[in-house]
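Most newcomers find our protein records easier to grasp once they have seen one. The structure tokens are whole numbers drawn from a learned vocabulary of backbone shapes. The record below serves as our worked example for the rest of this section.
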Amino acid sequence: MLGVLHMEQRLVVPKRLQLETFYGCNAKCVMCAIRLPPTRKIGAMSWEMSKKVFDEMAPYVDRMEKLDLFALGEPLLDPFLYDRIRYAKSKGFKSIGISTNADLFNEDRQRKLLEAGIDAVIISIDGIKKETHEEIRKNVKYERVVGNAQSFIKMRNDGNYPVRIVVRFIRQKRNADEWEAYKEFWKPKLSKQRGDKLIVYDVNTMGGEFSSKEELVARLHMDIERRPCHMVFDRLIVLADGTVPLCCEDTPRATYRLGNVNETSPIDIYNNEAFTKIRETHREGNKNSMELCKECTLLYSEQFQQNIELEG
């Protein structure tokens, strides 16, 4: 334990805790590293491990803003998903969310998710045309995805569940010309009053796993290149086997293995010497001395992200 070396007021607490409840996916998206040969064992995080993380992070829930139950994988494949949501709720965690490709999001799963108390659902749809979406998100059916998304919106509305729905478009060469039509289709289906969002951002390299920075960024912006990345300051990610990687871009291979929650409490890992040195490297404007950060375009994607103003 941290003991006297790290008094409560000196602890660095993540704003966002992220658990990879399932590593693996029914889809093989062209811009996702999960389509590559797996470097980790496919499957669900054990119930005992997630319970341990929730128990050990519960003292800090007032200082955290979000709990994500997804990372590199499809959370609807997780057999413990609804139980994890309920248990996390009982421990005081707030703004609990998942991100899904919605292909498996049938009415039974929709209902179970709402009844478990989910707070936010991100639905990824990358085209307004069947052929575009299915070219990008391989192994899913466009009609089923769109139907499931609209069914969930209706079920949420009819039951007046306090759930925020985010429809997300990842812009890339294959779909860039469809954004305006996509926006007009989805915008009236979402509700500003309920906190919904319609967002678009450019695809990124996943730390060099998907493509090179040179391919995605026409002109480097030195302020972005020197800017510290918020990921290392505000997010703690736990992979399905308990490994803590550097950030979401490090989830495919976990090149930076900063600890494992089976052996050490997550708050201790987040405050250990290795993590602290990485944050200092970023503060000093030297993040590009780290190979993963040097190839990452996440901050470029966020710089040009658009949150569309909703009406209802």
